[in-house]
Design a protein that fits this description.
This protein is an alpha+beta fold and 342 residues long. The chain has helices at 45-51, 56-63, 77-92, 116-124, 140-153, 177-180, 234-255, 273-282, 294-297, 304-314; strands at 2-3, 22-23, 28-37, 41-44, 67-70, 101-105, 131-134, 160-167, 185-195, 200-207, 215-216, 231-232, 265-268, 323-330, 334-341. Helix 4 links the parallel strand 6 and strand 7 (131-134). Bound molecules: acetyl coenzyme *A.
């Protein structure tokens, strides 16, 4: 089978086109490498105690969070994504110029446009290849992964980057203790490549916009939405998140004819340890098979799943050949899951 980028003739002069014509080995995609990046600055619960009326005890009891990373002044979502993408490419033994597709999940873009995918593409030097952002809040990476998987399986991409990156510290109201303690910054990435056997076994995406008022952030072109920081009805979000994520995991297993005992690792959205524990309990999954990084990262929205995945791969917990369920839930509401043979 011959692969030819649909954008081959459209690139500006100087963009290599013929090099993107390659033969495809299979019709599945697999994760060739993972990467992540966390900014240097760490904000602990004790630091927050000095900034607002809160306590380390309250934050840990209600969320499991102990610390989170905060982007440096001037450091952007794309800055962090570039570090994560380069790390994922290194892990896959690939060069930035090998990338031929970029799907970038974020809810904190550097600019309204050009989108973060395009800004990252320029940094990586893979001119001419499709690059775009997906703004589905915390499930942004799940959407990006699902889209990238489909392009690889369709033979329209061979080295696809799926990214989740966020600078949530810029859209947090630091005077609102009910949300400010929850969020952090960071980026995660995976590189997908074609494979003869399935790596990504299935992905499942959903959305329900009727919940738009329970978790939102203004700042777009609707000037009536004057709140430009994260607003959340925490209790309601909590309950719906647990029920929805349980359904999403069951849907993923059922689609593949599997029982939960087949899962080696659940890699959940790292929003709140209580949500993760409640989900695992309802599914009868022992916490020993659940990856948790929320204590160190806080909720990094679209970056949360790829950050957790990369941390678990690099620490040696997740090994090649193991079966993973990835899931995320966020503003919209939007949610998504994937069954992955790593
Ligand atoms: N420190 C101390 N006290 C606080 C703080 C704080 N940081 N924040 C709120 N409180 C107080 C409240 O004022 C309230 O006080 P009151 O009883 O005197 O009125 C009390 O703590 C309890 O507040 P609740 O909001 O009922 O606390 P709850 O147990 O629900 O925990 C939390 C709040 C952690 C936000 C929880 O609702 C939650 O985790 N919700 C899910 C949110 C989430 O995970 N969203 C992410 C999913 S989507 C996404 O990732 C964007």
């Amino acid at each position: 089978m011959i692969y030819c980028s649909p954008h081959a003739e459209l690139g500006p002069s100087g963009v290599a086109d013929s090099s993107r014509q390659k033969s495809l080995p299979g019709i599945f995609s697999r994760i060739a490498g993972t990467g992540s990046y966390l900014p240097e600055k760490i904000l602990t619960n004790f630091d927050l105690e000095k900034m607002m009326e809160t306590s380390d005890q309250w934050i840990r009891d209600r969320t499991g969070i102990e610390r989170r990373h905060i982007a440096a002044d001037g450091q952007t979502t794309v800055d962090m994504a570039e570090r994560a993408a380069r790390a994922a490419l290194d892990a896959a033994g690939l060069a930035p110029g090998d990338v031929d597709f970029i799907a970038f999940g974020t809810t904190t873009p550097d600019m309204l446009f050009p989108n973060c995918g395009v800004l990252l593409q320029a940094r990586l030097g893979c001119r001419g290849v499709p690059a775009f952002s997906v703004e589905t809040a915390c499930s942004g990476f799940m959407y990006a992964l699902s889209i990238a998987d489909k392009f690889v399986r369709a033979g329209e991409a061979r080295r696809a980057l799926a990214i989740g990156a966020e600078t949530l510290s810029r859209i947090v109201d630091w005077n609102d203790r009910s949300t400010a303690v929850l969020f952090g910054d960071g980026a995660g990435a995976v590189v997908l490549e074609p494979a003869d056997a399935p790596g990504i076994l299935s992905t499942h995406l959903h959305a329900d916009g009727t919940y738009k008022d329970l978790l939102y952030c203004g700042g777009g072109t609707d000037l009536s939405k004057t709140r430009r920081t994260i607003a959340m009805s925490g209790n309601e979000v909590f309950k719906i998140a647990v029920g929805t994520l349980c359904k999403a995991i069951k849907e993923t297993l059922a689609a593949n004819g599997l029982d939960r005992s087949a899962i080696d690792w659940l890699v959940p959205h790292q929003a709140n340890l209580r949500i993760i524990q409640a989900t695992a309990r309802r599914l009868d999954l022992p916490m020993e098979r659940v990856i948790t990084t929320v204590q160190d990262h806080g909720n990094t929205s679209a970056a949360s799943v790829p950050l957790a995945l990369d941390a678990a791969v690099r620490s040696g917990k997740i090994k090649r050949g193991q079966l993973l369920v990835l899931e995320a839930f966020g503003g919209g509401f939007t949610w998504g899951s994937a069954l992955v043979r790593y």
